[in-house]
């Protein structure tokens, strides 16, 4: 059902904002907490607040304005993260969680705001292997790929497919990494 909804939008996937969607593939490089485009320009940065009771990260634009806030739900056995628009926790956009608490390969499910009460069928899936720091992001449970990530020389390299929200993909990549680090006890 989620795949049909997305296909009805002319194959454009602006989850966080249409300003982050490009008509051509985008290659992004992630080094630490900074994301750069193919030309070496900083396009995003992830900030970890120094103070607070909850594990959270904030995705910033090049001017250090908050795009989304990622907050881990502390009591979740499935490593659940909730993502909110901007710097506060008023407008939830989507939820990300490990599909099961025990996994050999990492499988993470993404549920958009309209789909969070039932969580019967995910809107996006991330499949990957932590040791290789590689993953592929799909629409729902389909085989339609919207982004791929692999590890390069001390960095992650992401290819975001055309008409897909780059801020959404970067947010998922950081959450994927955080969930995998939590699973290893780091």
From TrEMBL:
Domain of life: Eukaryota
InterPro entries assigned to the protein according to its UniProt record, in alphabetical order: LOR, LOR_sf, Tubby-like_C
A Pfam match: LOR
PANTHER family: PROTEIN LURP-ONE-RELATED 13 (PTHR31087:SF152), PTHR31087
Protein family according to the UniProt entry: Belongs to the LOR family.
Protein name: Protein LURP-one-related 13
